[in-house]
Input
Amino acid sequence: MFDTKYTYAVARIRALETSLFTSQIIEQLIACDTEEQCIQVLQEKGWGDNDTAANADAILGRETEKIWETMKDLGVDMSVFDVLSYPNLFHNLKAAIKDVCSGNENRNLNIYYEDTQISPEEMLDIIKSKDFSRFPENMANAAKEAYETLLHTGDGQLCDVIVDRAALDAIYAAGKAAKDSIIKEYAESIVAIADIKIAVRSQKTAKTMDFMKRAMAPCDSIDVDQLSRAAVGGMEAVVEYLSGTAYAEGGQAIAESSSAFERWCDNRLIQAMKPQKYESFSVGPLVAYVLARENEIKTVRIILSGKQNGFSENSIRERVRDMYV
Amino acid sequence: MSGVVYALLGAALAVILAGIGSAIGVGIAGQAAAGVVTEDPSKFAKVLIMQLLPGTQGIYGLLVGFITLSKIGLLGGGLLELTKGEGLLVLCACLPIGLVGLISAYYQGKTSAAAIGIVAKKPEQFGKAMLFPAMVETYAILALLVSILAVTNLPF
Output
């Protein structure tokens, strides 16, 4: 009867949603002539802090930190967000394996995400000591296999494939085990879209079916066998296979262009989150807010890099993602 | 004497059940109100009104409790000698506001919390937002009416 433990957090998120960027604000950013003007608009909207340097990386980095500061401040059980942090965690694993295999004593690559369940330092320490059992169950085998593969073959791509597949499996398993429907939906969406991305990229780079099967994680809404077979058969076969699934629009986006497909991948996730705007008592709006903020930051990054590289307004506009609000 | 026990039990249930309902309802709405005020203190007055809406059931229970205590003469000092049947009649008369008060206040609290979400995003829609939890009040008022009519018209 008393399913109200997220009441405070959801009400606070509702108040915060008013400061999320609408498509009008995105248009305003696109209409700016230079990157500096964009940054000025962002600062006026409260992005960054008073002591944040007025450059894109510093402001976007600070905004990403703010997302998790807010979530921690809500006083909810942070384990519900674990599934959202898996991509960063497994990314750190790849970086740590590469650092150790390159003979670096400490973290050499400046590409680690901070604030993950296992800190980058601990991860390096585990890999150096080869004590993979200290990793959680869903990482241990993949870490060992990826480390040994990179050490013996020097094949960085295969190492990435092994870790990425483990990340997808971990997300999917977390989704299956979750009580909240939004986490289930998120996990299913992420894994299915990742499989489609693998199929599209493998088709473009003429990868074998075995490679695809190794990289793709099985899920309910996509048949990995059929998808990989279609990818071997050509892009049209992929589009045709997708037309019979819940991802038919993705097929149309693939046919349009690769940037349209990337855009569709992100938009689909945000569309799936939109019903959470009308939820008042579940963890859904919190998860949706995190994803909406990440999507917002990604979109701003696209606009800023477009401005840096002198892209036209139209070519930036066709890359920007749908907003949550 | 056993009749008075039942009658007092009725008065107690009206106050206890409706009071518990209101405490839960105001608590739920209060959590939502606190969430909004954390981010936007300017909305304090609006969300406070929303929070108070589920509090009325407790007042209704208190009112029926008073009327019942007065009816059986406990407040005036002349406690009536009630039979078991008469005591049970009083108990039955108190049940509507007790039970309906408990359940309606809980749901009104949840509706208030949801309506506070409207105020958080669209404060200009405060009037419409307030109507949703106010609708739940209707049923608490109906139960209050029946309890008052029943207690005051008992044949003793």
